[in-house]
Amino acid sequence: MADLRTRHKEATREAIGTAALRLAVEQGPSGLALVRVHDIAQAAGVSPRTYNNYFSSREEAICAFQADRARLLGDALRARPAGEPLREAVTEAVVEHFTRPEPDRAGLRMIMSTPELEGEALKAFTMAEAPLAEAIAERAGAVADDLFPQVTAAAVAGAIRVAGRHWLSPGSGSFDTVLRRALSHVHMPE
Amino acid sequence: MADLRTRHKEATREAIGTAALRLAVEQGPSGLALVRVHDIAQAAGVSPRTYNNYFSSREEAICAFQADRARLLGDALRARPAGEPLREAVTEAVVEHFTRPEPDRAGLRMIMSTPELEGEALKAFTMAEAPLAEAIAERAGAVADDLFPQVTAAAVAGAIRVAGRHWLSPGSGSFDTVLRRALSHVHMPE
DNA sequence: TCCAAGTTTGCGTGTCACGCAACATGTGCG
DNA sequence: CGCACATGTTGCGTGACACGCAAACTTGGA
């Protein structure tokens, strides 16, 4: 990870992802087709072929940020103090992980209002359920293959998704507040 | 709906979807790329161009069955008796809707073990949350825009997904049983 | 300084989604 | 009954894309 090579690779990946999201936001939900691979690559300072070494579709590139953040949710839960009850640990982990830094409203709105991007983001979000379920299983003293941790992880991920959608509509409170309210509807034994 | 034209259209859609799924299962998870549009169209007895009038990607065609069934879950809930408590109504609606007829094991396994198909199925499944949330809101006397019905719908959909995965692993009971066990972990006020 | 591993890039190929316009097949009306 | 009209189907052409391959280039270590 501290490898210079690896870091540079990570930087390239991030540059492409950022450029892709920026261009997508510029074009708006209706103009996704206008965001050409050539433009993304140029904006990121790489060749189209290199872009294609990192991502195999525009959607994947645009949603890379979302995907990376979601993937780390399990680690965030593991970082909570050991004695903390499950509900509290999950809630605090989610709030910390998804409000620092606060998500980019324009980017999130772009993704949520474009079916193709929404599908990709969904996939990324759901992939994150597996590590989250593992972390939940550890904390609850259950087996990761069991139904409970997986159903709970799915419910938590769903709540985060719903909270994100609500946060985009005008008049909703801070993301922190919406997240807590959404999570309060998820069943978690104490 | 009883329109001859509409029925024929629906039949065509189903023929294409069925053919696509069948070919995909034949090739196995690793050979998705070998399922060409040309083959799907030919197997369904239509031209490639017509296939493309119904679906805009192979993944969409292959997952059409899943998508159609998921989309109707809200209606299944509405069909439950009015006085029934929410938890019971949801559980029975889900079990009835997803076990009659029993899902195709091979097809489900194919979809669940192919990332690209899994993504598409996920999208379809999540799209079904909206009508489900609406039906839940009706039954619970809540507003559809509120957090509770949407979070609950997401949790229910997640539980069904997890149940499907478990059902595929050897030694799990009937789909009916697994579904009920998964749903028992979802919080629903009585 | 020089080598080996890894990364970027250009090119070629096969596939695909979709607009467009002609064609066929039902549908409803006089 | 037959004629226009609407709707579904098809072939063709175009633009874009993902990816295999091999060459050029960069980086880190001996």
Give the arrangement of secondary structure elements.
2 copies of one chain form a homodimer.
Chain A: H1 4-27, H2 37-44, H3 48-54, H4 58-62, H5 64-71, H6 73-78, H7 86-99, H8 105-112, H9 115-127, H10 129-140, H11 147-168, H12 175-183
Helix pairs in contact in A: 1-2, 2-3, 5-9, 7-12, 10-11, 11-12
Chain B binds a DNA duplex (30 and 30 nucleotides) through residues 3-5, 8-9, 12, 33, 36-38, 46-50, 52-53, 56-58.
Kindly describe this structure:
The structure is a homodimer of 190-residue chains. By secondary structure, the first copy, chain A, is an all-alpha fold. Chain A has two domains: 59 residues, Arc Repressor Mutant, subunit A, CATH 1.10.10; 120 residues, Tetracycline Repressor, domain 2 (Orthogonal Bundle), CATH 1.10.357. Chain A has twelve helices and no strands. In chain A, helix 1 packs across helix 2 and helix 10 crosses helix 11. The longest helix of chain A is centred in the first third of the chain and has 24 residues. The radius of gyration of chain A is 18 Å and the shape is globular. Chains A and B meet through helix 9, helix 11 and helix 12 of A and helix 9, helix 11 and helix 12 of B. Chain B binds a DNA duplex (30 and 30 nucleotides) through helix 1 and helix 3.
